[in-house]
Amino acid sequence: MAVAGAEGTVRVLDAAMGAEMEELELPGGALKVQLPSPARHLAVTGPMGYALWRRTDGRTVVRESGAWSSSAAWANDERVAVASGRVALVLDADSEELWRTEPAASTVTDLAWLRRGRRLAAAGAVRGHERHTAQPVVTYPYIGSHLALAVAPTEKWICSGNQDASIHIWRTRDGSELTMSGYPEKVSRLDFDDTGFWLTADGAPDLTVWDFSGKGPAGTAPRQLRCHETITALAWRPGPAGHLASGGHDGTVALWYPPPDSPPTGCDRCAPWTTRAPQSARWPGPDRT
Questions:
Q1: Which of 4, 42, 151, 223 could pair covalently with 112 via S-S, beta carbons 3.0-4.6 A apart?
Q2: 255-272 in b/e burial notation, b at 16+ Cβ within 10 A?
């Protein structure tokens, strides 16, 4: 596992025992860390550049580009995309640049891979780039500022969290769109579970969880999870069990479990939590740490 401090210190730890394997520094601070699967490399991004670390020999490459680098996304354990100002760079495991996108109209805020690493989605405006193509092959237009990007594991949906306190959704099959608005704050964190049926987001004191099974969330209300006054982190547990973790500005960590009446997660014909919950419905309370 990797732990990054806002000042730029990143420690790589053995997850079983907590022993430190490596420490590196990213000048200017750290915003995000990303490990591929299997975790043989590490990418760190920050306000002044990015760094790549290689587990096999401990090689670290730090690039102080001076450009805001908000995100990195691994296509596999040999290729990583890194946001760098208004472009996205695609690098190999030796930190050599393979190709880059043409400059976007605004800073690239998030990245995601589709088609098993053959297409890169970059958020500023949401644009799709095939391998080694600087110009986008597809554009998903939206008037507004994107802060976060999430692609369903099924690749049926691309979602952006936005400065205007909304989530915008495109269906990749036909480009049809849907906006879910009404959040009291900007939406800067989005995450799909591994089934692609559930999307969680910040933007309010409550976490919201939207149902993307079947035809998607149109005409439905989200589940609402209340524990924090301000959400600072969220993540699904890998796998189909539907367990969710959230963190708050007050240092609270909450672990959420699916309701007891949800369908079995092992069923290949149904998904957990398919009940269309009214706006006031809530999951069972969290375990608090």
A1: 151
A2: ebbbeeebeebeeeeebb
The SS3 call for residue 87 is strand
At 198-239, the pLDDT tens digits run: 999 999 988 999 999 888 898 888 988 888 889 999 999 988
C-alpha count within 13 angstroms, C-beta hemisphere, residue 151 = 22
Confidence of residue 265 (pLDDT cuts 50, 70, 90): very low
* CA contacts within 13 A on the Cβ side of 186: 10
DSSP string, 224-250: EEE--SSEEEEEEPSSSS--EEEEETT
- Global pTM value: 0.82
Taking CA atoms, 196 is separated from 105, 170, 202, 214, 272, in Å, by 30, 14, 18, 11, 11
Decide: 42 and 52 in contact? Cβ < 8 Å.
yes
